[in-house]
Amino acid sequence: MTATPLRFGLVGTGYWARVAHAPAIASVSVSGSGSGSGSGSASASAEGVELAAVWGRDPQAAAALAAAHGASAYQDIPAFLDAVDAVAFAVPPDVQAPIATAAARAGKHLMLEKPVAFSPAEADDLAEAVTRSQVASVVFFTLRFQAAMRSWLAEVTARGGWLGGAGSWFGSSLLESNPFNTPWRREKGALWDLSPHVISLLWAALGPVTAVTADAGPADVSHLVLHHQDGASSTVTVSQSGGQAAAGFEAYVWGVSGRSAAPRLASDPVPPLRTALTELVANVRSGQTEHPCDARFGRDVTRVIAEAQRLIDGRRIGLG
Ligand SMILES: NC(=O)c1ccc[n+]([C@@H]2O[C@H](COP(=O)([O-])OP(=O)(O)OC[C@H]3O[C@@H](n4cnc5c(N)ncnc54)[C@H](OP(=O)(O)O)[C@@H]3O)[C@@H](O)[C@H]2O)c1
Predict the structure, then answer these.
(1) Which of 11, 131, 141, 201 has CA 20 to 30 A from 297's CA?
(2) What is the atom index within ligand 1 of the atom nearest the CA of 21?
(3) Residue whose CA lies nearest to ligand 1 atom number 7
(4) What pLDDT, in 10s, does the model give residues 157-186?
């Protein structure tokens, strides 16, 4: 363990920054060498990481969140970047992408949110900056960092032979009272908010996604058919408009030997985010820049979603 703490800066002061990123950074503990596919359990030492800086467009919110964690608040991005070694993001994807690209170019390691961007071009820029600057990066595809989901993925990938899979996530973020009812979710819907999680899970269970077809239902319902490298296919259905009664996540893979269902979602975001941060920091310490959920994987998932959006838009205007 190095004696110098890794200084994290947090971009964003909204609900997710307050309930997930700030508490996870403040409570992360780090040990061991670089990682990315292990159990991700954190050890007891709380040395090594500090929440040093908060940037937000609302000065009062930035000051309040910074004060709650003994950090400094910034309004100026270059000054904020100068004060940190790594940056965590909790802002909309189109706000995250350019700041993250600038941060990577400045040599800062990245704890990113899904989706990494709204456009393949911005996702490409980010992935290229991460690769060129040789910084470590992790995207918080939540399901990939939940302990029970990791056990399930380890079991299904060891067993293999799956012909297909399916995943659905019906959320309620567009309800008036929901803290996730934010402008970009109302505009982009569950395709951009929830499908990244399901795609990232089926990608890990069945192999890299090589092609996608897509269609949409009423409201913001999106249906995707994914084709995986080794021949399996899978389906993804997501919506934020089902209301609370229909809300929930399910996934399974199937083959001649049977069917295996993914475990239920864990509700507390802090333990899996702490795992993601722990792995990011371990990679920074060991000089490892690759992670199964790094910015390049985030770019690949963005490409799948953008293609699905293109197909859905085409069908809506009668081209499909
Ligand atoms: N991995 C997961 O399970 C998970 C769960 C939830 C959220 N997320 C991700 O976390 C991120 C944040 O989500 P969220 O729910 O907090 O809502 P959000 O609307 O994505 O982000 C809210 C924050 O972004 C700021 N912001 C909005 N527009 C901005 C702009 N144009 N310039 C600068 N700052 C801007 C807001 O500032 P103001 O307060 O001033 O408006 C607020 O601090 C998103 O990328 C989302 O996908 C991930």
Answers:
(1) 11
(2) 10
(3) 16
(4) 999 999 999 999 999 998 888 999 999 999
